[in-house]
Write a structure and sequence with these properties.
Helix content is 50%, strand content 22%. By secondary structure, the protein is α+β, with helices and mostly antiparallel strands. The structure holds adenosine-5'-diphosphate (ADP).
Length: 410
Amino acid sequence: MFKKIRYRLLLSYLFVFASLLGIFAIAVRFAFTRSLTEQITDKLLAIGKGAAANVEFEKGRLTFESDFRPQDLIAYHQALQWFDTQGNLITQQGKTVLTLPFLPNKIVQVQAGKIPIQAVTVPIIANDKDQLVGYVRVSQSLEEFDETLQKLDLGLSGGIIITLVLSSIGGILLTRQAMQPIEESFARLKQFTADASHELRSPLMAIKINAELPLEYPEEIGPKDAEKFQAIANATNQMTRLTEDLLMLARTDKVSNQNRDTLNLTSILENIIQLYKPQAEAKKVNLKFQLIANFQLIGDSVQLTRLFTNLIENAIYYTPSGGVVEIKISRVGFQLYINVQDTGMGIAPEYMDKVFERFWRTDQSRSYWSGGSGLGLAIAQAIARNHGGLISLTSQLGVGSCFTVRLPTS
Ligand code: ADP
């Protein structure tokens, strides 16, 4: 149980941490991409302005100033294109030119492709007349930009993985440390329950004997007193059962290897059925057992007897007369499946998980003294888990229930 909590705690911690790291990585990548794009745009703008300042269009013809060499302005992966006011390409310099149509109103253009290209358009204003005479479009391949981003992605994901691995190691140690006091106090509580139930056994036995003794001489006590003594004896019987159930529950969680033997499950079930046959017959419930073969498993015979007693007792108790209670065993691989099926009142779907909880009963108004303690299925589930198995339930209100116990054979 604690292992599961620890595991869940660690997973939630890692999930929160991974989400925070993810958000951080996305924010860093976003800010980095933005600043890098701005840097490229600024650089291209500066080149564009330089190119625009050194050129003039006269009657549709491009003239460079005498000492201006456009190829000096651009680097290997950049290019310059000159357009007239109508957007016609006049000339170009460099290899990474944009093939996208010229759009004078769009300052920044990005051309997707195998190698994306970013371009910036700068208007050319005639020096003397303040008049628009053409445009320069400067472009640059984003290859380097992509490479830088790839490196950043690699660094970020590597960093996240290393941080997550380190934090899971830290998380394991932390959750272990955090759970230790809880585990200790739980063990103390269990020990207390076991001790208290154990200590209650003797006084309860004394009350029982003293309450039953006068009942053996009814002529000496009046019928009214006899009724009171009977009530005390009944209540004591129920309390004895309750304390025994609590003791059992406190002890079943402990895996006691010395009590494990190779058992014949078929004969355990046959013994229980033999014991409960008269009760079932008295209630006119048909108790059936389909014996196919002898099934063996390693376990604690006292605990397993208790498990199946609880299920069979419940099945008979919650099945009206004329009903059927059927027990079947089957084997699939290394697992044994034992079905205890009844045609009783059934359990509503919303209560199916609750029936295995301690002290939970569908009819909460019924007093403890009129039936079991509500611990029967909790004990049965604890025993099944103690043997590496599980109890599952299928049920339909008014039709019946089927409790399936799965137990490993070795
Ligand atoms: P109890 O001592 O009340 O039988 P259990 O833990 O054995 O306690 O069962 C819990 C509740 O589950 C019962 O109160 C009953 O409402 C329901 N239940 C158990 N077995 C059956 C069954 N075979 N058919 C219908 N309801 C059942």
